[in-house]
Amino acid sequence: EAIYKRIAAGEVVVNPASVVKELVENSMDAEATAITIEIAQGGKELIRVTDNGVGIIAEDVPLAVQKHATSKIRSLSDLEQIETLGFRGEALSSMAAVSRLTIKTRPHDSVEGTILSVSGEHRPEVSSAGLAEGTTVRVENLFYNIPARMKFLKNTARETVNVTSVVSRLIFANPHIAIKYINNGKVIYHSPGNGSLKDAVIAVYGKDISHRLIDLEYPGEIAIHGLISRPDFLYKGTNHICFFLNSRYIQSRNLQAAVLRGYGERLLRGHFPFSVLHVTLPPDRADVNVHPGKLQVMLYDEADVLSAAEHAVRAALEEDSK
Ligand code: ADP
Ligand code: MG
Description:
Strand order of the largest sheet: 5-4-3-6-2-1-7-8
Domain DNA mismatch repair protein S5: 201-318
Distance between the termini: 66 Å
Protein name: DNA mismatch repair protein MutL
Order of helices and strands: HHEEHHHEEEEHHEEHEEEEEHEEEH
GO molecular function: ATP binding; ATP hydrolysis activity; ATP-dependent DNA damage sensor activity; endonuclease activity; mismatched DNA binding
CATH topology of the largest domain: Heat Shock Protein 90
Organism: Christensenella massiliensis
Bound molecules: adenosine-5'-diphosphate, magnesium ion
CATH architecture of the largest domain: 2-Layer Sandwich
Family: Belongs to the DNA mismatch repair MutL/HexB family.
């Protein structure tokens, strides 16, 4: 059983970046409006995510680290959404199996909070304490008990880059949540959480980018909104184009090609625009129900989405050059 648990952990916990993504998504599910992400040594030594969400009541804390324990399936109709939203009750149990995990949590209407510590095969230790409202999850020494997995981790610089790109996508996907990102004690990003995508982008790219951006609004059943760069502001060789489908980060070569077609002759060879685009589709026209770790999605009527993206970009550029 113990070994099975450790192997199964490979599903959602593959590296520090995947731990960060799962923890932040839990904080968002808990309706947090402010989330702090801290890492040390690329997350290999420490990952800590603190939120001001609803917290976990004392008696449920031990359940949270059990396999397939999810509080997010309340009714039969929810069942259809589980896979889609990734509620599989696997993240915390997987982390508990392959790291030293500590949860500190207090719901706003509880006088005391709960602290749970667990590592590997040891039984969880639970105590109560006065804590701030919300939840902090700390993951230390990832894969300390699985040398083969530990060896598979990249060097600190590389793991840091991976975490940083996950965090920047989470910031772009959630402009209404204040997200602070700290690496080795230094604040790297701090988005204000005021709902403005532009302010979220500034938190990651810096203030100078703001006057190089064009707002893009394309309403309709296939709605697209976001920011693209003016054609005189391009990145050479590196790709700064990203997409969110119904607020989830996705990868799509076809969508990227559509954006580039929208720029058309305006693009210099080998250069890429900056672009953060949110595509909103009726949920039944987007199938994100692939593997939770995969970022590719199937779009029904993909051709319609691609032509919407191309037209939206072209129209925004034409409007701006008037
Ligand atoms: P899932 O998110 O699929 O339900 P997880 O293993 O990620 O499974 O989390 C297990 C459970 O722990 C969640 O269903 C939720 O009840 C609780 N939980 C985890 N993180 C938080 C958090 N930050 N705030 C409140 N509850 C949380
Ligand atoms: Mg989760």
